[in-house]
């Protein structure tokens, strides 16, 4: 059962970026984020009503500030993925756990292990190679554009800071309540910013096709709700380590989708840079766990 859920989570996570990129062909960026967040919040509202009534005003304020980082992640990623490749966008998010460890080291004074420092060095080498390809080669079908990659990096930083902050709120609030506020706050911020989309006039809703509506609903149901619940199931029924491994097949599935459906191309420089990022993240986040468990097995 755990293996089946792991594979299903990986597959659903892998189609997330391609679905978002495809849907953004039909909707202005901020409008898309607003609709995605509103629909997701409405869908899970019946399951969190009781928890919402127990919250105090001070708690709601704290949740708002924390979830604003979540909103930043969605907004920056939606803006960036239009200007870069799915392969590049997914690889940029791969070292999330490592970035979280660095943020915790800087702001919470948590210690970094030797594996994390060495893994960080390898990961940075990989990113330098990918950045070089983005700036110098101008191969947009492989590396994307520098502007798009920087926007995705901004999304990564917002998500990483949110992850650090959510350590505290996850021990206080129910996960479903946190998820609802993720969506609700994102919807609020996106609605405030939505006039930016209307600078060139209101988008014509009559032009929306069945494909546009279906793709938006798919993003909401699969990438916004189902992936979260499956990921939470993995954490609860396996371990944090096993659930963290989902990032690897997610990146592979997303990259395959980018190549098949968006005509993205793999170059030797991209493969080598990507492998360095994979290796660095593995050393920093998984190597010590495997080494320790092998010792216990002996």
TrEMBL record:
Membrane topology, as annotated: Multi-pass membrane protein
Positions in coiled-coil regions: none
Keyword match Transferase: no
Domain EamA, first and last residues per copy: 3-131, 147-284
Main location: membrane
Subcellular location: Cell membrane
SUPFAM superfamilies xrefs: Multidrug resistance efflux transporter EmrE
Keyword hit for Nucleotide-binding: no
Keywords: Cell membrane, Membrane, Transmembrane, Transmembrane helix
Top-level taxon of origin: Bacteria
TM regions (residue ranges): 26-48, 60-81, 87-108, 117-135, 141-165, 177-196, 208-229, 241-262, 268-285
One of the record's GO cellular component terms: plasma membrane
The protein's name: EamA domain-containing protein
Higher taxonomy: Bacteria, Candidatus Curtissiibacteriota
């Amino acid at each position: 059962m755990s293996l089946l859920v792991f594979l299903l989570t990986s597959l659903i996570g892998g189609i997330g970026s391609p679905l978002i990129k495809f849907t953004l062909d039909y909707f202005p960026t901020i409008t898309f984020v607003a609709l995605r967040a509103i629909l997701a919040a409405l869908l899970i509202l019946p399951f969190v009503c009781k928890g919402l009534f127990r919250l105090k005003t001070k708690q709601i304020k704290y949740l708002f500030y924390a979830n604003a980082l979540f909103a930043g992640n969605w907004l920056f990623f939606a803006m960036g993925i239009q200007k870069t490749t799915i392969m590049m966008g997914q690889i940029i998010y791969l070292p999330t756990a490592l970035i979280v460890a660095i943020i915790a080291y800087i702001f919470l004074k948590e210690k970094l292990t030797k594996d994390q420092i060495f893994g960080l060095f390898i990961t940075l080498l990989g990113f330098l190679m990918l950045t070089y390809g983005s700036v110098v080669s101008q191969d947009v079908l492989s590396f994307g554009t520098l502007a798009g990659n920087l926007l995705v990096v901004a999304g990564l930083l917002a998500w990483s800071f949110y992850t650090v902050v959510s350590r505290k709120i996850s021990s206080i609030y129910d996960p479903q309540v946190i998820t609802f506020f993720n969506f609700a706050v994102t919807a609020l911020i996106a609605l405030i910013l939505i006039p930016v989309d209307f600078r060139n006039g209101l988008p014509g809703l009559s032009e929306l096709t069945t494909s546009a509506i279906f793709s938006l609903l798919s993003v909401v149901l699969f990438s916004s709700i189902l992936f979260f619940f499956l990921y939470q199931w993995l954490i609860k029924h396996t371990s944090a380590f096993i659930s963290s491994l989902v990032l690897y097949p997610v990146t592979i599935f997303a990259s395959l989708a980018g190549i098949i459906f968006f005509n993205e191309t793999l170059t030797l420089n991209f493969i080598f840079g990507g492998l360095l990022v994979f290796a660095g993240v593995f050393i920093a986040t998984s190597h010590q766990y495997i080494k320790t468990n092998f010792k216990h097995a002996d």
